[in-house]
């Protein structure tokens, strides 16, 4: 249960700023489904507008990294932040963008390998090689 | 300064298990440079052998994710774990594998976007949509 | 479900050390409600006594930071530690101390802004300016 | 040492987008000093523009939380993310905004208290009270 | 609900690689119960084999640290990573290995003490004494 | 460089509350060396007194966990919090209490194993088995 009310479609319809964002989410994603993240942010219109504008630009507009790679980076960050919500939502998004079981297995192998070596490097306080600073 | 001694090439030459790993690192990477991470792990031969075997398999053997994507996932995890060593070493590795400034900028945009939304989802304790659990 | 038993009021009544702490929690807060955190700590009387004494001193005794500011700092830490329990309990506490929707929205904007810039500073390993060390 | 080049004032002067942001930072802060964070972000103009626009709005424009409270929340997040850069820069900012030693001591008491109880709540996996979810 | 299917015993029986691992888990632990962690990893046979081989070597083979100490270290890491699953499973494992209430109370006191001082050292950015680097 | 001044012995000698704590640290540890952590906390006498009283009770008074086990738990927490200061100081403390290279190697193996499985359990969002909740 969230610390804030999750806005229903009726709530959103009654608020012009929120309605504009929800309309754009639906149009951009070509889907009527709007997930709870946005229904929670609707309580804070400024944060809602800013966050959606940024998600749209970073995750949806074409760039030099392909959309699936971006989702994998997103899941990696969300996993390390122990963010249940974002781990679920972006794993679903990665699947919708074609993530195969083989790719997911490799992703998990990289994430767990990094977590393993990070803990060693931090425990041992290994100094960075000059070669990496050049 | 590390919590353990960093092994020199002379130290390594005098220890058969460590020498075998260092030889394989050099042969696999086609480079004489062996970074401090391995020189620190040399104090724990079992961990050295196991970690190198795993890094070789996960990061170097061909798979379905391309090598640059794997490095980006690695940097994302290392950044969230505040691991200075691994952030530097894998950013250098990503550059060696062709990371462009445009790709790096997009990577940073995704990481910081994820950190932003993770903090909101965790602060608001947003429940996962049933649609993501299907 | 906790890893330990949550003590009922009957359990507490039968243990003098726990009863003294629970009595003081109720008297200090002027409320009969004692939340699960203390019911879990009741299994470890030393930790119960020490933690309550500290919470009372730090969060309840008057100081130079106002009570609401202290709650916001508490929620910020709890969010970054992905602590579901403390995020919920201290958001409720902040509301009880008068947190408005506008203040909560600004709090969330600051937290997510900090998470955003933290991830960039850690990814880029930006050196601290001398001006900040003076 | 950063993973990217830190832009000098000469570098910035030669790039219209970066120059516009740096000019606005100087004008807004009424100071010629521009810290390394922005000199690192100058390599990614989109991120530079977006981040500065957001910092300006969230941290500088007047709102319902006072500027010092916002800095304390920022330091709390940065501390939990082990972000050396942001901890130093925002502690300096808090001091510039009038943070007293008494307030700093109370801030540290709250942060360490929260870290203490977060670790207990997470270790004990304490279920959230229904009272907090109402 | 997991992001992957949890394999039933029938699923496992139909896959030679997974069956070999599950058989070894049961034989090693002298118990028919196989917990969800392995049922989730069964989707990624390489990760399943590698992780089980490592867990068996690190956590089960005799060494110089006693089994209960290893479980306490495991819970400490899992708590700081906010890993609900591993906190529960390794607290149960520690109890099965004889953890007493007194030991658990002391463990919690150390973990929360460390979390407290970590947050202070990171907030204050205290430089490491030369004496610790010798 | 710390965000606060590190108190010299002369500074401490001029403040009765700080002097009492420093005297007790020296008497308890039977050593004239007082590390920077306490010299930083000296700026906040209440925090200094409370933290030392707790460290003395938790880490120094005899209990049911042996002193070396407590140090290993402390290092595990400090590593996961990326606390450079506490990782160094408590690794030094563990060595002073007799930590052998074999024990340290096993400790590192457990910590990195836990970090590995934590990341998998969090990425896969594996539900806790009922058997662990009983």
UniProtKB/TrEMBL annotation, chains A, B, C, D, E, F:
Domain Carboxymuconolactone decarboxylase-like: 49-126
Alphabetically ordered keywords of this record: Oxidoreductase, Peroxidase
Keyword Hydrolase found: no
MF terms in GO: peroxiredoxin activity
Name of the protein in its database record: Alkylhydroperoxidase AhpD family core domain-containing protein
Organism: Terriglobus roseus
């Amino acid at each position: 249960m969230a610390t804030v009310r999750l806005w229903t479609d009726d709530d959103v319809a009654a608020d012009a700023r929120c309605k504009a964002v929800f309309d754009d989410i639906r149009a951009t994603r070509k889907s009527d489904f709007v997930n709870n993240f946005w229904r929670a942010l609707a309580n804070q219109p400024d944060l809602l507008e800013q966050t959606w504008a940024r998600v749209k630009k970073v995750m949806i507009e074409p760039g030099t990294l392909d959309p699936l790679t971006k989702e994998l980076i997103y899941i990696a960050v969300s996993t390390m932040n122990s963010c249940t919500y974002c781990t679920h939502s972006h794993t679903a998004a990665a699947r919708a963008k074609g993530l195969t079981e083989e790719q997911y297995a490799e992703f998990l192998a990289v994430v767990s390998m990094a977590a393993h070596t990070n803990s060693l490097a931090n425990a041992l306080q290994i100094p960075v090689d000059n070669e990496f600073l050049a």
